[in-house]
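Issue 218. Parser rejects a valid record. Input:
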Amino acid sequence: MKKLILVAFLISIASYSCKKKGVFTKNNLEFSSDTLIFDTVFTTVGSTTKRLKFYNNNTLPIQVDEIELVGGDASPFNLNVDGISGKYHENFEMAGQDSLFLFVEVTLSVNGQNLPLIVEDSIRFRTNGKDQYVNLAVWGQDAYFHVNELVSGTWANDKPHVIYGLAAVGHFDPFGTGQEVKDQTLIIPAGTTIHSHKNSALYVYKSSLIVEGTLGNEVHFKHDRLEPFYDEQSGQWRGIILSQANYSTIEYAIIENAAVGLQVDTTTATYTLDLKNTIIQNSQFYNLFLVAGPKVVAENCVFGDAGLISTYLFAGGEAQFKHCNFVNYWTGSRGGPAFAVKNWWEFEDFIYTRDVINTSFDNCIMYGNALTEFVIDTFVNSPALFDVTSSNCLIKREEPYGIDYNYLLNTIWNDLPLFIDTDLKDFNFEAGSPLDNAGISTAGVVLDIEGNSRNLTSPDIGAYEN
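Output the parser choked on:
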């Protein structure tokens, strides 16, 4: 009898042990946040701590295989899980319907001016063969940081501004209340530098952007990576977006290394944008993207290298370009010319068209390292208006437009502009250039982009007056 009881007891233990190995949930963790942002200015504070809560919202326990900092030993962050400090933790069990705090500490060198503006890492959680990540970001230098923030007023220019996510001047229903924010104004004074993080943007909605750069004291929009390697890397931030914007002005700005440098779309204003003495270059897709009806005037501007089209007027609008350089010398293959205008689009097998009106090019350059740098794409027999004129422009095109394009007046086809150095983006030109004194008089444009006086009767073509 005792032997039978012992055998039954052993079988019971074995059965319980087998069951225990199979009672863990096959689901994963949930987190109080997908990103921890340390928004203290770390040029004055060396370290601080944030906390993250992670949950097992299942009824069964869960086996957490690993928690680690992706940056490893080199990471400035450190983890504390359930009272144990370290950059790597493994093999612990959480009960069903339980949660734990994870404390994250970061330590940066005080006044470490060699640090990036934003220092990042991530925490990897592995459960049931699946990796889940929580992002970490800390400010590495002293700056004004705008993290998914509504902005307006006048920005100070005594230190850089950094956009992380979205800096929005107005926004459609930002808080889910059913009410939009509009008719705001952001003024950016001369000498301000704005750094934007990956996929971040300055977004202007039914509001105004006033950029007040001056010659030699430009407003500079660029990426937030400070290492020299990134100076020529395109697509490092989203760009500036004017959406249904009120009247805005941008003067003496440099916008570079974005996905789309400046996008302007859809307006009900008399004019959307005055753009003067501005350089937009090295954009992944477009430097200037005008879409769905904006109204823009651009003078003395340089639209440089872009991976697709340097300037694209798409799906209608109005634009006057005076003394502008559309000069695309993108290295490697690219998907379009220096300038393109297209008045139609296709959606669900239906062709739509929109008017392009009051659009002109006076004393402009469309040139680069492709065979064709100027494309007009209109839909045959379209009911849409196409009111475009070009006067005294130098255009590179493999097959020059013929007499049917009688709105292209005094065009110089395919002559070498004799730029000083396209690699260095120096678009001044040498003696003997066909640009020299080949323009027509343009009212109001009395100086070039470098502040030189123009010949008022026979100015040079392009943004630079020799």
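Fixed in the parser; the record now loads. Residues 144-429 form a domain with the Pectate Lyase C-like fold (CATH 2.160.20).
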